[in-house]
Amino acid sequence: MASDAQLLETGRRAIASVINLALTCPAGGDARWDAMLGQLGVTPLAADERARHLREGPGQSRGALLLELRWALEAAIEPLCEHMDDGYVLRTAADQAVRDYVGAVKPKITTSSIFANAMAGIATSPGRITGAAEAAADRCSCCGAPRQDRSSNTCRYCGETL
Amino acid sequence: MSADALDARWDGFLAKIRERFDELMRESEAGCAELLKHTGGDTVPLSNAWQGMRMRALGLQSKIGDTWSESVQDKFHEIEAYDRADAAWARAEAVSDQIEIDLERIETKIFADALRSMLSMAAQEQAALRCSQCGAELPVGVVLAVTEVNCRHCGALNTIEPGPRARMAVALSHYLWQEACWPKWLARWQAENAAKRARNVTLAQLQAWEAAEIDYWTAWLHERAKLMPNTARDFDKELRGRLHQFYGSLEREPAWFKAGAPRRVPPM
């Protein structure tokens, strides 16, 4: 029977192997990633669900999807953890690997991306300014004569109440 | 590692943070100026871009405290160089404070520039206005609120609607006044920090802060009245309103309370 130390080392190698493959995939995974999931007995997300994760999730510029990665890591280490006195260390290593992976695959925010996004949003901005300054003369509703001051409430030409 | 070596590494780290911050701010100013040319007066894209840059700058600033507490402070303490640690942290605070001040100054400049650009566009729009009765030019300067003017040619009373750019300029005008009062804003910031960072804040420190607050808001209101003359009539009421929150915060200070809350500006 392997010792805890041996199982831990095996688990760490399994984590590294899953992470390394996930990192080399394009965003959302590829056939190699699907094969890895198959080997580990993990059912991948449906195609439309994968697309939704990419579209609405935290954003990733590359790599397998985060949720599938977590499932893959769990599938890789759980059989080992069951034979360990304390599987906590290995589970913690897997959790940390997911967090590090998030940092690696998230799109980097750069000055050019910030300004490119701002520039792209000009046409659809909610603050887009439409309209301009206007001037409108106040006219009598009866005869159409322009009002010249507000000293009187009646039209000086036709007597209509303004 | 010796205290000298630690100092040298820490100062190098602080210099790098400052250098990166300066680079970010240069990029921000240039990027926002370019963006402004394309927005037609809309400040939403400008504001979005600036918030992104500001968050990056704040991230840099927070690295100073994080790095200090995660590793550097302990290294000074391991060699029992406590005074050197205090001095090193004081230098870090100075860099962090300067970043905070520069962020405010650059934000003020970016939005004051946007405001000037909008005012210029509003002036062009308003210069093109014609009397809707006879078509003659109207004697309009830049107006920021609905105004009535008589046509010089036919005498008709025209109501001038200043337009969305002028209205947006009013909404953002705070930056223009703040820019004009920048030295007083800085004096206020320094007085506030001196009071807030004192272990036992004195009445003299609180009164210095009060003086700086009054000085800043008085200048701010005077600047505002230059472009918006109708605001001058409620000057005293406005000043009391602007200082309301400040005086509220002083009430929690024992030194102020003990002295009988000797406020220079009466309550609202």
Plain-language structure description:
The complex is a heterodimer of chains A (162) and B (268). With 162 residues, chain A is mainly alpha-helical. Chain A has helices at 4-24, 31-40, 47-56, 66-82, 88-105, 111-120; one strand at 134-137. Chain A starts with a helix and ends in a 25-residue tail after the last strand. In chain B, β1 (147-150) and β2 (157-161) form a beta hairpin. The radius of gyration of chain B is 25 Å and the shape is flat. Chain B is mainly α and 268 residues long. Chain B has a two-stranded antiparallel ribbon. The termini of chain B are far apart. The interface between A and B is large, with 29 and 47 residues. β1 (134-137) of chain A pairs antiparallel with β2 of chain B.
Helix content of chain A: 40-55%
SS elements, strand count of chain B: 2
For the biggest sheet of chain A, the summary is: none
Judged by helices, strands and strand pairing, the structural class of chain A is mainly alpha
Question: Mean pLDDT of chain B, as a whole number?
Answer: 93
Assign an overall shape of chain B: flat
Please report the distance between the alpha carbons of the first and last residues of chain A. Answer: 102 Å
Tell me, what's the shape of chain A? rod-shaped
Strand portion of chain B: under 5%
Order of helices and strands of chain A: HHHHHHE
